[in-house]
Write a structure and sequence with these properties.
This protein is an alpha+beta fold and 295 residues long. The chain folds into three domains: 125 residues, Jelly Rolls (Sandwich), CATH 2.60.120; 112 residues, no CATH class; 48 residues, no CATH class. The protein has eleven helices and eleven strands. β2 and β3 form a beta hairpin. It is elongated and about 65 Å long. The N and C termini lie far apart (44 Å). The relative contact order is 0.09. The C terminus is likely disordered.
């Protein structure tokens, strides 16, 4: 659960507050849009077993001023900040704002309280490689959560944690920035692809634009990976197809369209090259020739 907070509006004006909360794989995510306000965390209201955590906050619009350990950090629209949610903190949003907050167990990050304090000393720009990857992941997690299956949510959770680790490492000089950027980007791309397998236009150009990197940088991130970018896209589409074939009664044509193949013949050929059998044959071998199974 997210840390409990109280808010006080800063202006005499009609107030509104739009908020959505979601939880997946040990992470808690909240998206908030509201009027200018001051917010204080109430750590004494959080169960002791859940208090050791970090929060990542991406500011979509407006500004955030984080106050923790007698230090103030200003976070502008398009920037994010990582901070220690186990120590007292407060926010000021001087203007109307939209923000996404994700709370992550500290043990999952593998960072010390001192390192968290170092990270929270400054905002992370989305123009930096790791900051851009983390910002893109947060936006994708929020926008596509309802359409993700269990495996995709688990993959997204792991990738978010990895991206925060890399931001931490970048700020504490614990790893090569170049290697860290490539690892973070490749991991983020896999999660992005898993969330967008339904899109038949998914390509290096589309992904690069969404990740705010060049196509060359995108391909470079996969140089030391077991799969090329194209292979990673195909693998993700086929994984989603196998899940649908095994868990639904959709026709093969419907499955093909759901995982981004407009040409069912092409889908069958790609599937057979990977599995050695057609989708219909694969389904029959997995489930048997039971009633209600459509070819």
């Amino acid at each position: 659960m997210l840390v409990q907070m109280s808010a006080k509006t800063l202006r005499e004006a009609p107030a509104y507050r739009r908020m959505s909360r979601r939880s997946f794989e040990g992470l808690a995510m909240s998206r908030i849009a509201s009027v200018p306000q001051a917010v204080t965390a109430h750590l004494d209201e959080v169960p002791a077993g859940q208090i050791e955590s970090a929060q990542v906050q991406l500011v979509h619009s407006g500004r955030l001023i984080l106050d923790q350990a007698d230090q103030q950090t200003e976070v502008r629209a398009g920037e994010l900040v990582v901070y220690d949610a186990s120590r007292p903190f407060s926010f000021v949003y001087p203007d109307e704002f939209r923000t996404t907050i994700v709370q992550i167990p500290a043990r999952a990050l593998g960072v010390t309280n001192g390192e968290l304090q170092t990270i929270s000393a400054g905002a992370v720009s989305r123009r930096s490689a790791n900051g851009g990857v983390l910002a893109a992941l947060l936006k994708a997690a929020d926008a596509n959560y309802d359409g993700l299956g269990g495996n995709s949510r688990r993959a997204l959770s792991r990738t978010l944690v990895d991206a925060v680790r890399l931001v931490a490492a970048e700020h504490t000089d614990r790893m090569s920035t170049i290697d860290g950027n490539r690892i973070a980007l490749a991991s983020a791309v896999r999660s992005f692809v898993a969330a967008h397998v339904h899109d038949p236009t998914l390509s290096a150009v589309v992904i690069a634009a969404r990740m705010h990197v060049s196509v060359r940088t995108l391909h470079a991130a996969f140089e030391d990976e077991p799969d090329t970018l194209g292979q990673a896209i195909r693998r993700s589409r086929l994984e989603a197809a196998r899940t649908l074939l095994e868990t639904t009664s959709q026709t093969v044509r419907s499955v093909a369209e759901t995982v981004g193949y407009l040409d069912v013949t092409h889908f069958i050929r790609v599937f057979k090259n990977s599995e050695g059998v057609t989708p219909a044959q694969w389904r029959r071998r997995r489930l048997g020739d039971g009633p209600g199974l459509l070819p």
